[in-house]
Amino acid sequence: MNDQQIQNTLARVMLGGTLLAATIIAAGLIWFLATHSGDAPGDHIFNKEPKYFENPISMVQRAFEIHEVGHRRSLIMIGVVLLLINPAVRVGFAVLGFAMQKDRLYTAVSLFVLAVLVFSFFW
Amino acid sequence: MTEPLFDLAVAAAAFVAGVVGALIGLGGGVIITPLLVLVFGIDIRYAMGAALASVIATSSGAAAAYLRDGISNMRIGLFLCMATTVGAVCGAMLAVVLDQKMLSVIFGVALLVTVLLSLRKQKDLSGAAALSDPLAVKLRLPGVRPTPEGPKAYAVHGVIPGFLIMIVAGILSGLLGIGSGAFKVVAMDQVMRIPFKVTTATSNFMIGVTAAASVGIYLKRGYLDPALVAPVALGVLAGAFVGAKLLPVAPVKVLRLIFLTAVSIIAVQMIARGMGFQIG
User: Fold this and answer.
1) Taking CB atoms and an 8 Å limit, are A39 and B85 in contact across chains?
2) pTM of the entire structure?
3) What distance in Å separates residue B120's CA from the closest CA in chain A?
4) Is residue B87, in this structure, part of any structural domain at all?
């Protein structure tokens, strides 16, 4: 793969990922609103989110427990996390691309950036 | 106001911010956060979280288009992302310990600086490839860009000062939940003297990666309220899309002037709010 081919593949992955994330968020929002139509909005006061948002794995589990409280919010959060992963995927592709070109310097550079992203997510 | 009405209003405001942002080239963060704080009375931490998520959304969409055109320089982008991501992680950690008022003040100041940077007449300082700094050559940063007359090589200068400014841009991004695109662009086209188009495309790529580095920390600290992120991200995304379509026909110069004036007023209000008194 040359530079331009890598970039084209990457462009498709990014666009697809963004659209998928937006669709999931929209679905979650509509569902959330349908069940909370009478509530007052609650964003005026800072109130930490529930524990299960702190870990991507427990968040995904929660989203599949349809009858649990927080299910719909979790669905939106999965869409949001998909959005957030998009740049990391971008960098991951760069690591692969540079590795295939046997470009050691830039494989290392993109691995460093990827490591910082992963660290920030799981720290 | 009930939740659906409130969300609809937020989404509409985010849409307008997305359109304006795409037209005048400022990202969502600097517009969305003050809007949510000053108009909707939302806690600045939730506002920052929602804005940062929408910054990533628009950056991914736009960066995809630029990548296909082959204008953005992946080497420059990734090299500078080492600075911005580390800065962003530090900024996000700092945001967690600072209080709401302090954040408002810093936000207002950063807004004013952003306006000043956007008002400056920027000269294209790019030059021929042969004139690059030795360090830039060693790092293989100079690239080739497509032009109407065929591919053209360009030089890269000021690697170290550019890198240092990027650390600051990263800290601001993590601290305030903005893309800090204005800072990135200045570092690249004024300090490193990279051609405009390459700068714009590359900074777009970097904004998303930088934002992702701090948003993980926001997520853990509970700055992302799904009920707020959803209407904001969707509104901005749709707005940015429409804005990009309107770009050829919109009166960009007039809009820019009106908008930058508005942002300056907002900046003063954010500072005033942080200091404990309210204007207008």
Assistant:
1) no
2) 0.85
3) 30
4) yes
